[in-house]
Write a structure and sequence with these properties.
Blueprint (H helix, E strand, L loop, with lengths): L1 H12 L12 E13 L1 E13 L4 E9 L7 H4 L11 E13 L6 E17 L7 E4 L5 E26 L2 E27 L4 E4 L6 E3 L1 E14 L2 E11 L2 E3 L18 E12 L1
Antiparallel strand pairs: 1-2, 1-14, 2-3, 3-4, 4-5, 5-7, 6-7, 7-8, 8-9, 8-11, 10-13, 11-12, 12-14
Length: 275
């Protein structure tokens, strides 16, 4: 982590070249269609706000997930059970970047780094694979969802194409690539105790080995529509910090499809408002 912090400072302050145009101060990206692939296909929505503190530093807040229960097949499979989280992935990051190359070129590159907080929650697939214990009163405890809290750190690369408008250079379109490492800080469960006639909310301790390492790769593209509006789309892949678990063959006979893969792929389309 110390080496990353040192590299981050060097990138932010190095004199690679200066910009001859100003970036927008605020940008708000609204994606009414966000499709996530994880065991099933979930339909959600995404919201991302970025504040460019200066040409060097920025902060970003993002949230992406399902709001309507019926659009999340994992949660929807649990019926009326309340102790099941909606799919959601959020982050809050702070970073710095700088231009690389000659300022007079129409095509410009920016590189930088960032660090922050990442949050993920999702439901389990409803089957007996997630039963973890039985109770003295005849019920059984079942994991219904996960919440993962992580530190995220990574690098950002932007390819910016500009065009002349009068005596100014304005952004025509840009490519953004982020590569991140996630370090899991905490992992909690939601759960229920199921009986023949009813269910109760259950507290399930995390007695599993926690694989704290994760990775996230995200690419997005923005095309200028007007002075205040961009068309945007993006794809990303997340391998999240998660429990390291395999079934006990003395109690469970694998039938296929039981593997726990904390893998999430996403594609989204939206509009970015600039100011």
């Amino acid at each position: 982590m110390k080496s990353f912090a040192l590299l981050f400072i060097l990138i932010s302050y190095a004199s690679f070249g200066q910009s001859d145009f100003s970036l927008e101060r605020h940008s708000l990206t609204i994606s009414p269609l966000s499709v996530t692939f994880h065991k099933n296909i979930s339909l959600g929505h995404s919201l991302k706000y970025r504040f460019n503190i200066s040409n060097l530093f920025f902060t970003e807040l993002s949230t992406d997930g399902t709001i309507i229960k019926q659009l999340d097949p994992m949660k929807n499979s649990w019926g009326s059970y309340n102790s099941v989280p909606n799919l959601n992935q959020s982050h809050l990051i702070f970073g710095g970047n700088t231009f690389v190359g000659a300022a007079e070129k129409m095509k410009k590159n920016k590189i930088g780094g960032f660090i922050g907080f990442h949050y993920l929650q999702h439901a389990t697939q409803r089957d007996e694979y997630w039963i973890v214990d039985s109770t003295e009163s005849g019920g059984h405890n079942t994991i219904t969802g996960f919440r993962t809290y992580s530190i995220i750190a990574g690098f950002q690369f932007q390819r910016i194409n500009t065009k002349k408008q009068g005596d100014k250079l304005i952004i025509k379109h840009r490519h953004n690539l982020n590569v991140s490492y996630l370090f899991g800080v905490d992992l909690t469960f939601t759960g229920i105790t199921e009986y023949d006639t009813h269910y109760e909310k259950a507290s399930i301790p995390n007695n599993f080995h926690f694989n704290r390492n994760g990775v996230k790769i995200a690419y997005s593209f923005e095309h200028r529509l007007s002075n205040i509006l961009n068309l945007s789309w993006g794809v990303e892949y997340l391998w999240a910090p998660f429990i390291d678990y395999s079934p006990n063959s003395d109690f469970f006979v694998p039938r296929g499809g039981e593997g726990i893969l904390p893998s999430f792929a996403n594609i989204k389309v939206g509009l970015t408002f600039l100011k």
